[in-house]
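We emphasize that the prediction below concerns an isolated chain of 393 residues; any contacts that depend on oligomerization or on bound cofactors are therefore not represented. The input was used exactly as deposited, without trimming of termini.
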Amino acid sequence: MFKTRPALAALLAAAAALLVLLAVGTAAADELESKLDEKESKLSEVRERHGVLTTTISRYKDRIDRLTGEVAVLRSREAAVQVRLDAKQAELDRAVAELDTAKRHLAVVRARLKRALVALRERLIAIYETGTPDVLSVIVGADGYDDLIGRTEYLNHIRGMDEAIVGRVRDLRDQVKSTVFRLRTAKNRIEAARDAIAAEEQALAGARAAVERRQSALVAVRASRVAALEKIEETEQDLDGDVAEIQAELAARLGETASAPLPAGPIRYGSGQLIWPVDGPVVSTYGMRWGRMHEGIDIAVPAGTPIRAAAAGSVVLVQSDAESGGYGNFTCLDHGGGLQTCYAHQSSFAVTSGSVSQGDVIGYVGCTGHCFGDHLHFEVRVGGAPTDPLGYL
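Result of the prediction step, given as a C-alpha cell string:
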C-alpha cells in the first residue's frame, strides 16, 4: 500500500491541477473554442469547394484534351483532303486543257465544213446548169466501144466525186456534233470538280471552326475555375493560419494556468492497426497543401500533452529542433515489416533510444520547428515512403 501512495498522490495532484485549469480558463477557453469551431467550419466549407473545383478543373482538362485530339484528327483529315483536292485540281487543269484543245479543233472543223459546203454548193450549181449525163445518152452518143468505155468511166468518176463531197460534208457535220458533245462533257466535269472542291473546303473549315470554338470556350471556363481555385487556396491558407493561431492562443491560455505536464489520458483506438498518438481533432490532412505535399496529419492538442507510441517498436531516429529542418524535436519509430511512424514539433522527448511498447509515452506536444501553434505532426511511412496515416488509425 505504501508503494502506491506516491503514484496516487501524483494522480490526485494532476487531477487538482486540471480542475484549477478548467475553473480559471473556462470562459476564455469557451470563447476561443467557439472561434475555433467557426474557423474550422469555414475551413471545412472552403476545402469542400477546393475539392469540387479541383475535380471540375480536372474534368475540363480531360475535355480539352479530348478536343485537342479531335483537332489533331481534323488536321490529319485536312491533310488527306488536301491531297484529294490537289488531285481534283490536277483533273480540273486537264479538263481545262482538253477544253482548249477541243475549242481549237472545233474552229478547224468549222472552217473545213464551211469549205466543203461551198464546194458542194458549187457542184450542185454546175450540175444544175450543165445537166448530168445519163447512161442512155452516153451509149447513144458513143462512137464505138472504146468511146463508150471511156465515157462510162468518166461518168462514174464524176459520180464518185459527187458522193465524196456529200460524204465529206456528212463526216464534218458529225465531227462538229462530237466536238460540241465533248465540250459540254468537259464543261460539266470542270463544274463538278469545282463544286466538289468547294464542298470539301467548306465542310472541313466548318468542322474545324466548330471544334476550335468549343475548345476556346472550355479553355476560358477552365481559366476562370483556376482563378477561383487560386482564391480558394488563398482563403484556405488564411483559415489554416487562423486556426493555428487560435489553437496556439488556446494552448497558451491553458498553459498559463497549468505548467505541469498533462495526463496522458485514455488510449484512443480506431479501426486500423495503430492507436492514435494523441486524442484530438485532425486540423490538416495528408496531401497537397499550399502548393507542396503535406506528408502527414496535424492533430491539435494543448502543449504538454503526452505522445503515445502508435505501435510497439524501437527508436530509430531522434533529431532536435536544430537538426530536423522544420520538424522541430522529431522522433521516428520502426515497427518492423517496413512500417515506421514519426512524431514532429515535440516540446520535449520522453524516450530517445531503445524499444517501446504500444501506448508508451515517447514525448510531449509542443510547437518547435515550423508551426503556427501547438499540435502533433504525425507521419506513417511504408518502405520509407510517406502514406496517409488515417488508413492505419
